[in-house]
């Protein structure tokens, strides 16, 4: 998928010397992603502005060398985009559907991201107290895009993060209303007050809207705080196809 000339400055700023890799991923999404039903045909012309740049703008909220878990990765948005834009990140893509994890594995291989990105099949909650518990170390950052309302996201994603870690959820124009509706539920789940961030201001015509929630405490025996002496082990295994699909 060609990169529109008008978006080239933003793409260069967000992807740097990995822009050729981002171009390759855009082409794969617009071809294989559409053919295999992971990207809608009408979305193909908007791969760059609506998907890649919107996701890559999140990098301004992510600290260096972070361990990142992307929940409900689908076609790799935002997880693969963040890995391409930030080679310092260690990224685990969590996805329950088999056909999507197959696609993600192929994308990781074709983009040469195997040393940086792992693909794990299962529901987020199964990595906390279910059959896949222990497969993920507590994350610095958990990301999600177009997965669920804030209260459900907090229930699924906060237990995957370390105490002090953060959930970053890409949302739409109604993010502030959603935060107001669910902030009490977030607090009960151990999260701090949700904040609405705008990423890519001055770079993108439509900055990305991201809801940020810090995990302040463990709730219900799901505490997985990282030892003070280190960040824990990275995600293990690229193929975790033992969990049920949603």
TrEMBL record:
Keyword Transmembrane: no
Basic residues composition bias: residue spans: 237-246
Major localization listed first in the record, in broad terms: cytoplasm
Entry EC number(s): 2.1.1.-
InterPro entries the UniProt entry points to: rRNA_ssu_MeTfrase_G, SAM-dependent_MTases_sf
Residues binding S-adenosyl-L-methionine: 72, 77, 124-125, 145
Disordered as annotated region, ranges: 219-246
Localization, UniProt: Cytoplasm
Gene3D superfamilies in the cross-refs: Vaccinia Virus protein VP39
Family: Belongs to the methyltransferase superfamily. RNA methyltransferase RsmG family.
Name by which UniProt lists this protein: Ribosomal RNA small subunit methyltransferase G
Origin organism lineage: Bacteria, Bacillati, Actinomycetota, Actinomycetes, Micromonosporales
């Amino acid at each position: 998928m060609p990169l529109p000339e008008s978006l080239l400055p933003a793409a260069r700023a967000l992807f740097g010397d990995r822009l050729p890799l981002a171009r390759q991923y855009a082409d794969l999404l617009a071809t294989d992603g559409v053919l295999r039903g992971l990207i809608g045909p009408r979305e193909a012309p908007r791969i760059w502005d609506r998907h890649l740049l919107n996701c890559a703008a999140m990098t301004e909220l992510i600290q260096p060398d972070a361990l990142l878990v992307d929940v409900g990765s689908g076609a790799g948005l935002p997880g693969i985009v963040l890995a391409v834009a930030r080679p310092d990140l260690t990224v685990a893509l969590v996805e329950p559907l088999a056909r999507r994890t197959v696609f993600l594995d192929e994308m990781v291989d074709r983009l040469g991201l195997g040393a940086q990105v792992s693909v794990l099949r299962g529901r987020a909650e199964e990595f906390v107290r279910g059959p896949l518990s222990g497969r993920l170390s507590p994350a610095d950052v958990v990301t999600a895009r177009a997965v669920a309302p804030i209260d459900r996201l907090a229930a699924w994603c906060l237990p995957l993060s370390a105490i002090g870690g953060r959930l970053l959820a890409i949302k739409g124009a109604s993010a502030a209303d959603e935060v107001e509706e669910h902030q009490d539920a977030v607090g009960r789940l151990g999260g701090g007050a949700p904040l609405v961030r705008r990423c890519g201001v001055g770079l993108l015509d439509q900055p990305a809207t991201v809801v940020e929630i810090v995990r302040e405490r463990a709730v219900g025996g799901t505490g997985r705080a990282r030892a003070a002496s280190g960040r824990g082990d990275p995600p293990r295994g690229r193929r975790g196809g033992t969990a049920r699909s949603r």
